[in-house]
Design brief:
- By secondary structure, the chain is α/β, with parallel strands linked by helices.
- It folds into two domains: 360 residues, 3-Layer(aba) Sandwich (Aminopeptidase), CATH 3.40.630.190; 85 residues, Alpha-Beta Plaits (2-Layer Sandwich).
- The protein contains 13 helices and 25 strands.
- β5 and β6 form a beta hairpin.
- The protein is globular and about 80 Å long.
Length: 545
């Protein structure tokens, strides 16, 4: 959800990021998405972490034990089995993948106040995979639309021990209700094949408190706006929001973009980004009392995995994120198409698995020049861009048979292929035992076989033309592949090479500037557009000067 031209499709529904809309919101519809949303939330999360650096450095007298105690923590991976480990590059460095989540959970009084009530929510309505290259010269941020239909694996609640059974073809944002963010990690891994090393989940009650502590947050709107449901009324231009005005801004659904969740999310991300810009310049950072409130609010705004549960690891992560040059950060949307059974939902597009694989293999999507090599060291060289094969996996018949002697291998690989878009993949049961894995394909279907091999991490030596006239690509699992859904030793070194994203990914370089929040021009209020509502209600005072 990033960018300029080239809309992606997402569904507008109720409740993104803890903020309820009006009960009479229109039914879901497909709308173009402003892809700048992901850029803003990435900047916001990075800035929120960076603010901890500022707070800790300025307020060293604060007890780190107290701040650590504020941070909520949860298990990283709640799925059954393992998601594997990162592949290191030739210098022994590993990439890092962080799943950034925005939740509409209302489990505190403050979140209930922002959300307009308790007892609803509990979905992971913002999901972004932030990939840091092994050599830390580039980063990729891939948004996964919340209405993506996928299979959620079985998850175990770490607190109660309750096992949530696997569910098929449901919205991925509901995975948060299956035991917590660790199940969303499992669902994202099952969808993409990407190993998730950490997660960060953000709520907005702490952010609002931080806005008050710094004396308000500056935001810009590109037109007059009055959302009659949230109460937000602002004239065109830049305003300083705090207190009730900040709450109104964060709740506004009918005022921005297309009058739905996507516009509201974009506005929330602008608010979060602007908050930390204020943090960097606010005089309150020299005031010990203000620093105390800021540190408390910042740490209380986060839920993280146990590996990040502390000020020190969060500060270290912030430093790594900040070291990546802006022109080496690329934002992508998971390539998507309407879900066949309901066009208001989404499915991964045929090119999505190749994007997932490029991230898993530490391929950069950035085209900007690589950073200058540091003194006494060298940067890993990037390779020439390699286009992703344009193959629709849904059109490729694949037969999978197990010649490995290990039980269940054909079923596991068939399920993995279907998860990655190969909907015609069929379990062909047990075949003759073979020592090495083979992938045979009909004459003329080499490109389809190469794309399938790339999905599974199979080397080129496993491919050969089929001796039969059968139109099916056949995967014969050998004894050299006893476990896992990716071939052992595949891409054993993280490359950080460059690759070209498909057009459906709507790639955008982070160096592009962002503008004001776009006020909706559609009839989203009882007075028509929020611009017209502003003009027809002069008696209503503005929310902020």
């Amino acid at each position: 959800m990033v960018g300029t031209p080239g809309p992606a499709l997402v569904t507008l529904r109720e409740g993104a990021w803890g903020l309820a809309g009006h009960p009479h919101d229109p039914s879901p519809l497909l709308v173009p998405v402003r892809r700048s949303a992901a850029r803003r939330v990435f900047r916001g999360v990075c800035s929120l972490l960076s603010s901890l650096v500022l707070v800790v450095s300025v307020g060293g007298w604060l007890s780190s034990a107290y701040l650590n105690g504020n941070i909520r923590r949860s298990a990283l991976f709640l799925g059954h089995g393992s998601q594997g480990t990162e592949k290191k590059d030739s210098a022994g460095r590993a990439p890092m993948n962080i799943l950034v989540l925005g939740s509409d959970t209302r489990d505190t009084a403050a979140d209930c106040a922002i959300g307009g009530g308790c007892g609803v929510g509990g979905n992971a309505d913002v999901e972004m995979v932030v990939h840091l290259a092994a050599n830390r010269t580039n980063a990729t941020v891939m948004s996964i639309p919340r209405d993506t239909i996928t299979d959620i694996p079985a998850c175990t609640d770490p607190t109660s021990g309750h096992v949530y059974p696997a569910t098929s073809q449901v919205q991925i944002n509901g995975s948060l209700q299956h035991g917590g963010p660790g199940c969303t990690v499992a669902a994202v891994h099952a969808l993409t094949g990407i190993t998730i090393d950490h997660f960060i989940m953000v709520d907005f009650s702490g952010v609002v408190n931080m806005s008050d502590a710094v004396g308000g947050v500056n935001v810009c709107v590109n037109n007059n706006v009055y959302d009659t449901y949230s109460g937000l009324k602002l004239s065109k231009g830049t305003h300083t929001l705090k207190g009730i005005a900040a709450l109104e801004f964060l709740r506004t659904r009918h005022g921005f973009g297309n009058g739905g969740d996507v516009g509201r999310e974009a506005a929330q991300h602008v608010f979060l980004s602007a908050l930390v810009q204020k943090l960097k310049t606010a005089n309150t950072l020299t005031n010990p009392v203000a620093v105390y409130h800021l540190a408390t609010a910042a740490t209380k705004a986060l839920t993280v995995d146990t590996g990040l549960a502390g000020v020190s690891p969060l500060v270290a992560l912030a430093g790594q994120l900040n070291d990546v040059p802006t022109n080496r950060i690329t934002f992508l949307t998971m390539p998507n198409v309407p879900y066949p059974a309901n066009p208001n939902w989404l499915s991964p597009a045929p090119t999505a698995p190749a994007v997932f694989q490029a991230i898993a293999d530490d391929q950069s999507f950035s085209t900007g020049p690589a950073p200058t090599a540091p003194a006494g060291g060298t940067r890993t060289a990037t390779r020439s861009p390699t286009p992703i094969p344009s193959v629709d996996p849904g059109t490729v018949p694949v037969a999978v048979d197990n010649g490995s002697r290990y039980t269940g291998r054909a079923a596991a690989l068939t399920a993995a292929l279907r998860q990655r878009g190969y909907l015609q993949a069929l379990n062909d049961g047990n075949g003759p035992t073979i020592a090495t894995t083979r992938l045979t394909y009909p004459a003329g279907d080499k490109t389809a076989a190469q794309a399938l091999a790339a999905t599974l991490g199979l080397p080129a030596t496993t491919l050969s033309v089929s001796a039969t006239t059968n139109a099916t690509v056949r995967l014969q699992i050998g004894a050299d592949w006893p476990a896992g859904t990716r071939f052992p030793g595949a891409a054993t070194t993280a490359s950080s090479g460059s690759t070209t994203p498909p057009p459906a990914a709507n790639a955008l370089n982070a160096a592009n500037a962002a503008g004001c929040v776009a006020v909706s021009t559609q009839d989203t209020t009882q007075f028509g557009s929020p611009i017209r509502a502003y003009a027809l209600n002069p008696q209503k005072p503005n929310s902020a000067p």
